[in-house]
Specification:
Layout lengths: L18 E9 L2 E9 L5 E5 L2 E2 L9 H11 L5 H4 L7 H8 L1
Antiparallel strand pairs: 1-2, 2-3, 3-4
The structure holds zinc ion.
Length: 97
């Protein structure tokens, strides 16, 4: 995902435009792995293989995201882990690990 996309991406839930970008793996201006975080509705959206997964809650895939979140858990800020929708990341880890 090119970083310039941040200028046009909005949260699919509330259309909020001021998303936080947490980069896990970046090449030049391309984010390969990371998280987009909406500070308004506290939803996080994973960026997996360069693709931001910005879909409604009922289309989210917990198992797919769990593998991703497990890989990068040390790079996810605690404020997001403990305060995230549609899945609470800390809760996912305690229930599935
Ligand atoms: Zn939002």
């Amino acid at each position: 995902m090119k970083k310039q996309l941040m200028n046009i991406l909005i949260c699919p839930f509330d259309k909020y435009a001021d998303l936080d970008l947490i980069e896990f793996e970046t090449n030049n201006s391309n984010v390969n792995s990371g998280i987009l975080y909406c500070t308004k509705c506290i939803r996080y959206y994973p960026i997996i293989n360069g693709i931001p997964i910005m879909v409604p809650d009922n289309q989210r895939n917990l198992i797919y995201e769990y593998n991703f979140l497990s890989k990068w858990t040390n790079k996810i800020p605690e404020k997001i882990k403990s305060n995230s929708m549609p899945f609470n990341i800390n809760q996912i880890h305690s229930e599935l690990s």
